[in-house]
Design a protein that fits this description.
By secondary structure, the protein is an alpha+beta fold. About 20% of the residues lie in helices and about 30% in strands.
């Protein structure tokens, strides 16, 4: 039973409220939150309002209109830097056309790439010049993206029990999997500032992860997918 105008800690996702002059209401609350409600509202109005909210939510889900909430800006701290890059053998190129179609090309071991007019020597060209040349060879291409070739390896360095440089495996691997493969953190690890460095064709992205939150089951969006070539570094906590 729930008495009117009383305070109570709700620990369930939904709560059914009954009592003299009260009504049935279903509302989500976070665990442990303190609330105070006035239950003198007319039952028919309150029930209609609750059902209306549930019906709108159901319609959004059925029609595919409901979207996931945006990633909070403080989940990942990202820095991006660029440095000159020259294309190399086995780098890949993705040509995307205005009609939505795409064409994938790979620079050969000899440093050439196949175009409609035949093979062209491109290894060693700066990315900007390489893209400009492909735009001439494929004038209908809306975009040209270069994907640097990397072997299927990741590195976990720093304050882990077993530093590794290993194959990422055939299936997807996430950050927590990579740390587990390195046998976890040492007692000196700074788990608040774990870094993932990811480089592609001269663009270097650095992700800073608060691993303490992951260990508590919080901000799980930080448990990002690890990609081939990623370098994960665990610094030492000097405090």
């Amino acid at each position: 039973m729930f008495s009117p105008n009383s305070n109570r800690t709700l620990t369930e996702e939904t709560e059914v409220l009954t009592g003299s002059g009260t009504f049935i209401m279903i509302r989500p609350y976070s665990a442990g939150r303190r609330i105070s409600e006035n239950f003198n509202m007319r039952p028919d109005i309150a029930f209609t309002s609750s059902m209306g909210t549930l019906m709108v939510a159901a319609c959004l889900l059925i029609n595919g209109c409901a979207t996931e909430p945006p990633v909070p800006p403080d989940v990942l701290k990202v820095t991006i830097t660029t440095c000159p890059y020259q294309v190399n053998p086995l780098d890949k190129v993705v040509l995307t056309f205005s009609d939505g179609s795409r064409r994938d090309l790979t620079i050969s071991h000899e440093g050439t790439i196949e175009t409609d007019s035949g093979p062209e020597k491109v290894a060693g060209l700066p990315v900007v010049e390489f893209k400009a040349r492909l735009q001439k060879d494929f004038p209908l291409a809306a975009s040209v993206d270069v994907i640097e070739f990397k072997d299927n390896r990741i590195s976990v360095l720093g304050e882990v029990f077993h530093q590794i440089h290993t194959e990422s495996g055939s299936g997807p691997m996430r950050l927590m999997d990579a740390i587990a493969a390195a046998n976890g953190f040492t007692p000196l690890a700074d788990k608040q500032h774990v870094r993932v460095v990811r480089e592609n064709a001269g663009t270097v992205e650095t992700y800073e992860i608060d691993f303490r939150q992951l260990l508590r089951g919080e901000n799980m969006l930080q448990n990002i997918l690890v990609k081939p070539g990623d370098v994960i570094t665990v610094p030492r906590d000097f405090l």
